[in-house]
Amino acid sequence: MIIICLGNPGTTYQSTRHNIGFRVGERLIKTFGIQARGKKFHSLYFEGTVQTTSVRVLFPQTYMNESGKAVHAILSFYKKSPTECLVIADELDLLFGTIRLTESGSAGTHNGLKSIVQAIGTQFVRLRVGIGPKPAHLDCADFVLSPFDSLEESKMEMLLEKSVSCIETAISSSIQVAMNMFN
User: How far apart are CA 171 and CA 165, in angstroms?
Assistant: First the structure.
């Protein structure tokens, strides 16, 4: 399984809503002791196991709207199908703390997912992590590039644990089982 954690590189974006994919990925590699393997595929690259399944975890170092480059590069190198990918992304249209696992679908308004869909098509698993609702007075870009408030940060631990448990279930049981448990 190839796990793609979406976010923007650099300290400027580190604590923003758009980087929740990186935060979930960081928790995943810490929880399972997944090891850094350097920079490959336009990404920070990690390898390890979740339960007994080999995983490769990428943190693309392109900006969000070019994430497809990293995904295409690793799938081409390992000759893997898009169906063997799980992409973790923020979701503006889900309430903070909600997660939604899907087997395929559209990119919606998410530029990182749009880039991946353009590069490999729509047949990849998505874990959408809720960061909403967006206040009416903010535009989407300003909201996703803003930090979480203190109340959200106080609930972050539970959200990260739930997201990692969902990924673990999807890998060790099945996508369907994980969808039934966590959606």
Answer: 10
Let me know: does 34 contact 47? Beta carbons within 8 Å: yes
- Written as tens digits, the pLDDT of the chain (183 aa) is 999 999 999 999 988 999 999 999 999 999 999 999 999 999 999 999 999 999 999 999 998 999 999 999 999 999 999 999 999 999 999 999 999 999 988 888 899 999 999 999 999 999 999 999 999 999 999 999 999 999 999 999 999 999 999 999 999 999 999 999 999
Cα gap 100→42, rounded to integer Å? 27
Q: Which residues are catalytic?
A: 18
Q: Which of 76, 86, 88 is nearest to 55 (CA)?
A: 86
Q: Is the CA virtual torsion 172, 46, 132, 126 positive or negative?
A: negative
pTM over 0.90: yes
CA–CA dist 176, 161 (Å, integer): 19
| Exposed/middle/buried for residue 80 (C-beta within 10 Å: 0-12, 13-18, 19+) | middle
